[in-house]
Amino acid sequence: QVQLVESGGGLVQAGGSLRLSCAVSGRTLSRYSMGWFRQAPGKEREFVAAFSTYADSVKGRFTISRNPAGNTVYLQMNSLKPEDTAVYYCAARQRTTPSDIVTMTTYDYWGQGTQVTVSS
Length: 120
Known about the structure:
Layout: E1 3-7, E2 10-13, E3 18-25, E4 33-39, E5 46-50, E6 53-54, E7 62-66, E8 72-77, E9 86-93, E10 109-110, E11 114-119
């Protein structure tokens, strides 16, 4: 069983930065591929980042990475905009290739989410 716990969300002004963390327990991270998704109020959950692929809306501003120990995944978010306001979720899947990485149903485990609010 894999457990994912996100942290690092909060309130930030437009143009600011936040770094989200996703702590992984239960299995070695290298056995899974990880992704970040988000869900804004009244909208469906959408893909943000995985491997070196990014949603067009965040490309050039967000960066996904993992620590050398392999038990934490990060999402560095720069130049934040009010439209980035959402609950951000990390997800893990047993499939380790980058196929279908934008598809939510290919992910096996999800964190509880962390709120990011960007004020204008």
